[in-house]
Amino acid sequence: MKKLLVLCVAALCVVGTVFADDAKNSKETEETFDLLKKPTDSLTRTIVPEDIHSTNKTAKVSLEYTPLTDEVRVFYSCLAVSFDQGEAMNSVIGVLDDFKKQNQYYSYKYLQRDSVRYTQDDHNLKIAVYESYVKMSR
User: Whole-prediction pTM value?
Assistant: First the structure.
């Protein structure tokens, strides 16, 4: 009877260490997957073009380019009182055409409708942000 009890306790200890080791390995696996996900996000580059194709003095244009998926988000921002959606669209199209030529892309297609949102900056000025989201193709 005592031998059986000793064998059960020993088997329980062995099973416990195996499960503990397995739990540790699964935690390491999750951390590895998290590390694999992070480089995808960190590959997004922010580009500020020199020529923004706009006559608006308060306008600023920036691109967020993800080379892994060939996706580009273009942000056109200016003061809300001087915002003209037609000029913003023309500026974004000009910037995308320049980007397409510089990076040897053939064309692009829109992944979402262009959107306009209004925010306030640090000086309490109302800012209009026009956003376009496209996928480039070679």
Answer: 0.66
